[in-house]
Amino acid sequence: MESKRNRADELSTESWSIESWLVAGGRDRSPGAPLNVPLVPASNFVLGERRAYSRDDGTPTWEALEEIVGGMEGGDALAFASGMAAIAAVFEQLPGSATILLPDDCYQGVAGLAAAGEARGRWRVRRIAVADTAAWIEGCRDADLIWLESPSNPLLAVADLRAICAAPRKEGAILAVDNTFATPLNQRPLQLGANISMLSATKFIGGHSDLLGGIVTVNDPRLYAALRHTRELTGATPGTLECFLAVRGVRTLGLRLARAQESAAVLAERLNGHASVSITRYPGLPGHATHAVAREQLGGFGTIISFDVRGDAEAAESVCSALRLIQHATSLGAVESTMERRAGIPGQEHLPPSLLRLSVGIENAEDLWRDLDRALRAAG
Ligand SMILES: *Cc1c(COP(=O)(O)O)cnc(C)c1O
Questions:
Q1: Closest residue (by CA) to atom 4 of ligand 1?
Q2: How far apart are CA 94 and CA 106, in angstroms?
Q3: For residue 201, which atom of ligand 1 is closest to its CA?
Q4: pLDDT band at 51 (very low <50, low <70, confident <90, very high)
Q5: Where are the beta strands (DSSP E) in 289-365?
Q6: Do domains 10-250 and 254-379 have the same CATH topology?
Q7: Stretch (H or E) spanning 79
Q8: How do strand 338-341 and strand 98-103 relate by DSSP bridges?
Q9: Which residue in 77, 94, 100, 367 has the fewest CB atoms around it within 10 Å?
């Protein structure tokens, strides 16, 4: 049964596009096998075979997700309980007194984790502007962990991953890219020379706001074994139902992303010309600070837009309250569009007070525009 899975000669991203792989991968093709991976809620297995205990040995359901995402990213994937659990497992690999490079704009959870460890003397953290490629290259020489996030959350700055990944780094240093916003359909960090690509599967992979999950993909067997060992020891294992749902969700990622991305381009352009909006940030806009790198590096510009409403925090909040189609909610990468004021989140007070982050979903683009335009007018 195992031998029928993962047959690289028959089915892999070497011979098929990622769009086909994410539909066909992670399935058992033996005669009589269920087409979809079964939901296997098991902690332990009858002894004598490869699997004894799921925290150590995984389950078929987790492994289907790992196989699909590993194939998309071009490496070996490990699923975790959440994106943060996956990030924490990477940080866990660091030696004592390590130096971590972190973008000035990044997910607040990773910044919080880095700050908490620094406060306890575990490591030192240096923040670098996402677009300051020269500073990243310089920093690579002595850092133990180079943590990149591109496009960044929520300012959507695109790092020059190709240049930074090619820079000489210290022996044993880890360069990791948070690939949550781009997804492996728009960007494959391992192919650019990163050691790790990390995804919050909670977002685009699951795609339906109904699960928490994280995935780390690597192409180095030693790093894979170390991360797997950390998952065992810390118990940061994924839920079986969550993996089942994530597999179901990822099947439509190609369609969801293409549709939402097309709408996002239209909405970004219109927001950019709207009288009630002072700044629109979207990597696909020619006026975007890192548009040139984005065009060169990304397969698509993504589905996230952040824009500043003219006026104060209250004006931005009232835009959110006036929405009828778009959900006033956090998170991103789902079928439904969501929008929120980011500076209202604890730890995000440094952001422009009227910045709204919009995650474009798969609704009709003209309906989304009507909702946005009406909400902006009502507030303005
Ligand atoms: C949501 C998110 C995370 C954290 O993932 P969780 O699944 O919420 O733990 C990390 N990075 C980025 C860019 C995210 O958007």
A1: 83
A2: 20
A3: 7
A4: very high
A5: 304-309, 327-328, 338-341, 355-359
A6: no
A7: strand 76-80
A8: unpaired
A9: 367
Tens of pLDDT, residues 311-346:
999 999 999 999 999 999 999 999 999 999 999 988
- The answer for 333, left when phi > 0, alpha when psi is -120 to 50, beta otherwise, is left
Which of 5, 28, 105, 107 is catalytic? The answer is 107
Half-sphere exposure of 40 (CA within 13 A, CB side): 19
Amino acid at 297: Q
Phi, psi of 72 (to 5 degrees): -70, -40
Tens of pLDDT, residues 259-294:
999 999 999 999 999 999 999 999 999 999 999 999
pTM above 0.85, yes or no: yes
Distance from C-alpha of 65 to C-alpha of 241, rounded to nearest angstrom: 11
**Average pLDDT along the chain:** 95
Ligand 1 site, CB within 6 A: 82-84, 107, 109, 149, 153, 178, 180-181, 200, 202-203, 212, 214
Choose which residue among 91, 107, 210, 303 to substitute to test ligand 1 binding: the one with the highest number of ligand atoms within 8 A of its C-beta: 107
Pull the structure tokens for residue 262: 């097309």
Task: Please give the CATH superfamily to which domain 254-379 belongs.
Answer: Aspartate Aminotransferase, domain 1 (3.90.1150.10)
Contact 343, 355 (CB under 8 A): yes
Residue count of the chain, please give it: 380
* Residue 99 burial by Cβ neighbours in a 10 Å radius (0-12, 13-18, 19+): middle
For domain 10-250, give its CATH number from 3.40.50.11030, 3.30.465.10, 3.40.640.10, 3.30.1490.20. Answer: 3.40.640.10
Which among 190, 198, 227, 234 has a CA at the least distance from the CA of 214? 198
Structural domain boundaries of the chain?
10-250, 254-379
Distance (angstroms) between ligand 1 centre and the Cα of 84 equals 6
pLDDT band at 14; cut points 50, 70, 90: low
